[in-house]
Amino acid sequence: MVPPMRMFPATGISLIVHKYRGTGRVVAFFTRERGKVEAVARGVGKPGSRLASLVEPLTLSRLFLAKGRELDYLTEGEVLNPFYGLRSNLRRFGYASYIAELTARATEPDLPMPQLFQTLCASLEALEGGATPDVVTWSFALQLLAQLGVGPVLEQCANCGQSLTGQIHYNPPAGGLICGDCAAAGALAGCAVSGVTAGLLRCMATFPIDRLVRLSCPPVNCQEISQLVRRHIEYHLGFVPRSQRFIEAIETSSKQHHEGDAKT
Question: The pTM is what?
Fold first, then answer.
């Protein structure tokens, strides 16, 4: 006799969805109670499936799951927030997809991280509410890295531990910002970072997301922050999010569109 599967509830956001055995799907959820949960949703490819709305990417739901031997199973649930505003704006959807992919690939299954869950929810709410997409995304990435224990050192020199004096640089192997003296040594040289950028990074890494919605970031600082976050993720997590290319294509298209409008 096969023992009944143990059921458990969870509140989670669907991150990534893959096809599974015909009309089924394997969904990576990030939940408040258990961290990342990978579950099979049977039959969601069929018309009228009661589970289909729960597995739409970037949907916050109250889930009911059954514990399986390898994968869990989604049995039922209730949508709490579908984040429709993200789906109606390609740029915001692109950045939200980056956040979802980063969460899915950087976290381990069944490792509760309730603070990260709250940061994830706040980030999606901020994106939907009209906050600057890149600022929200960089803030989320920095806070995720910190909660994983691999966040960049931003308060003092990552090499010598002294104050960040002189021309500040970012060095991936050192794990963060380095002072002018260490950068001048040559072996630890990295990309230059202005004092303004260093201050913005500290705000993004520590302030609640909802306090950053009005943060102003000039283009030159945006470029430095983007480069630092990208290099830190690649070096310390070992991958480049695939959705990064999608964001770059959207931003390039938007820039070309604005330049075309300026000429007319």
Answer: 0.91
